Amino acid sequence: MSASRHPALSATDPELASFVAAEETLQAETLRLIPSENYVSAAVLEASGTVLQNKYSEGYPGRRYYEGQQNIDRVEALAVERAKGLFGVDHANVQPYSGSPANLAVYLAFAKPGDTVMGMALPMGGHLTHGWGVSATGSWFRGVQYGVQPGTGLIDYDAVRDQALAERPKIIFCGGTALPRTIDFAAFASIAEEAGSVLVADVAHIAGLIAGGAHPSPAGHVDVISTTTHKTLRGPRGAMLMCREEHAKAIDKAVFPGLQGGPHNQTTAGIAVALHEAAQPAFVSYAHAVVANAKALAQALLERGFDLVSGGTDNHLILIDLTGKDVPGKVAAKALDRAGIVVNYNTVPFDTRKPFDPSGIRIGTPSLTSRGLGVDHMPRVADWIARAVDAAAKGDEQALSVIRAEVADIMAAFPAPGLPLS
Length: 422
Ligand code: DSN
What we know:
The protein is an alpha/beta fold and about 425 residues long. The protein folds into two domains: about 45-280, Aspartate Aminotransferase, domain 2 (3-Layer(aba) Sandwich); about 290-415, Aspartate Aminotransferase, domain 1 (Alpha-Beta Complex), CATH 3.90.1150. The protein has 16 helices and 15 strands. It has helices at about 5-10, 15-30, 40-45, 70-85, 100-110, 135-140, 155-165, 185-195, 205-210, 250-260, 265-280, 280-305, 330-340, 365-370, 380-395, 395-410; strands at about 30, 60, 65, 90-95, 115-120, 140-145, 170-175, 200, 225-230, 240-245, 305-310, 315-320, 340, 345, 360-365. The strands form four sheets. Strands 4-10-9-8-7-5-6 form a seven-stranded mixed beta sheet, sandwiched between helices. Helix 9 links the parallel strand 8 and strand 9 (about 225-230). The mean pLDDT is about 95. D-serine binds near residues 99 and 127.
């Protein structure tokens, strides 16, 4: 780490500073394809590292349990107003520490332990906190799970409706972590209404696409919108819950004092900045470019013989089923990492392998789009993936080293937001 970039840290704790420097280099030199990751701007980074960190602020603006909140109240109120404006909602709570606590607050607001809740199964593309067994949400509540259809990889909304009417869950979650297709919020709303369920859209992955108009919005369809702030939305690690006015008190009470103590004010500041950035015309272009890149990359991968769950993508995310390539997802992900391409191994729907050693890899375009790569670069990216998977099958480390050098060479021409120029 250059001492001029973080002089105090370098002087006080050179060992830790060296780890941060190494991470800066890694993020600069590699092609980061994990769909839930991104690069925050220098402004978000600055806001997230301010003296706002030094405060306790339990409560909400104007109603705190601590004095000295004059500035903190303004920061939080600004973040709330920006969230309401950007997503077109009645109410926003910007205090959840991250996505999992945000979702747990939803359970606290609307259900009692033992109640039935419904969400997409984790191996089908859902999230742990949507009632999956190993999560508190699946052990303290009775989680029933829906999936996608074999063959198409798409949600069968009629089947979801039948299940919801049979189970009458207190809460239905839509959204997930490995869903390459558009979520039909209106269809879920009609199902939830018939079943008498509270409908929650977990849009953590696609919040930035929604903000930029590149994915339909759940606002007006669902009771609660849950989102992290650090994925396509390009903010700091944090979360928000947004809802109709009728649920505002229940949501606020569940977050604090129900589940959390003092909010992380420095994160709230970073969220406010990210929301401001996401309201600019450039962010609309960014969101649409993320989707255009993902579609171009999906097409290029199909042309190279890859099997994509659901046959492609409508959003930022592509789920590759490597079963036909005879390379397990974990082996491929580790080989890609050695080639300077960072992905995560992932289950595919109806996977016959275990989650820690599954058949697929999950990739996405939020980060590379933040660096300015466009659709013309996607055939090159698909080539690298194809060559690396082939090299993984053959155990060809030399081929992976060659790709790594090519990746670093291209990435050097596309500086990442928030990182020092190399
Ligand atoms: N871990 C996140 C992801 O990678 O999708 C979801 O919480």
